Automatic annotation (TrEMBL):
Stored InterPro entries: Archaeal_FAD_synthase, Cyt_trans-like, Rossmann-like_a/b/a_fold
Species of origin: Oceanobacillus halophilus
Keywords: Nucleotidyltransferase, Transferase
Keyword S-adenosyl-L-methionine: no
Cytidyltransferase-like domain boundaries: 8-134
Pfam families for this protein: CTP_transf_like
Top-rank lineage group of the source organism: Bacteria
Protein name: Glycerol-3-phosphate cytidylyltransferase
GO molecular function: nucleotidyltransferase activity
Amino acid sequence: MRRYNIGYTTGVFDLFHVGHLNILKKAKEYCNYLIVGVSTDELVRNYKNKQPVIPFEERKEIVEGIRYVDKVVPQVNRNKYKAWEHLPFDVLFVGDDWKGSALFNELEEKFKEVGVEIVYFPYTDGVSSTIVKEKIRL
């Protein structure tokens, strides 16, 4: 496994669960310094068409409390290249459901030009914020 200096990942981190923790722990295993972009409430409303259960400031505070995380920043848009322009990182960590998508194939090419790699992680089976919400409704 290659070790990177600065890693970056993003998420909503609503109803924080073990799947979120696994992603952050795995990302930290790959880098010396991990920056996490937490999606703002406005961003979540704009692209998921729903309001997060937990407000942004609280989600940010939860992620800041995770020992694998070195810095938390607001994610105000989904453009990972713009994020890199403001927070130069060596590696971007994303879920493997994005692998092979047109968006990430293009992003891989752009990042290759500046020496940034993308590492895809599998999701934790049977765990998601949607599943947590469904269980709460029972």
